[in-house]
């Protein structure tokens, strides 16, 4: 079993970035400055599904990390220390 810590980090960073774009005018201002202000009407069609995806990915990564941690605690080597695979 691979360490799911990286997946958790990526999903949390993605969730934070998408949430910032959803709940602040940051992306609207950015699109306006580069001349793509006409696309702001379509942001909800992209950002809300992306937010749902990243929140789901974060929940999945937390579940995987919990399973990984439980697996590592039950796997011990003969010396009694924990063994990470």
Description:
The chain is mainly α and 85 residues long. The chain has 3 helices and no strands. The protein starts with a helix and ends in an 11-residue tail after the last helix.
Keywords for this structure?
85 residues; mainly alpha; 3 helices; 0% strand; elongated
Major sheet description = none
Number of helices: 3
Please state the structural category.
mainly alpha
Radius of gyration: 19 Å
Q: Share of helix among residues?
A: 55-70%
Q: What is the approximate shape?
A: elongated
Mean pLDDT, all residues: 86
N→C terminal distance:
7 Å
What string, H for helix and E for strand, traces the elements in order?
Answer: HHH
Count the strands? 0
Summarize the structure.
The chain has 85 residues and is mostly helical. Helices cover 69% and strands 0% of the residues.
Note the topology.
Elements: H1 5-23, H2 26-33, H3 43-74
Helix pairs in contact: 1-3
């Amino acid at each position: 079993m691979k360490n799911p810590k990286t997946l958790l980090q990526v999903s949390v960073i993605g969730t934070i970035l998408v949430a910032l774009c959803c709940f602040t005018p940051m992306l609207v201002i950015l699109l306006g400055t580069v001349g793509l202000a006409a696309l702001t009407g379509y942001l909800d069609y992209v950002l809300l599904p992306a937010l749902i995806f990243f929140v789901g990915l974060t929940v999945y990564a937390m579940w995987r990390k919990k399973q990984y941690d439980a697996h590592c605690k039950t796997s011990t080597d003969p010396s009694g220390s924990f063994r990470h695979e």
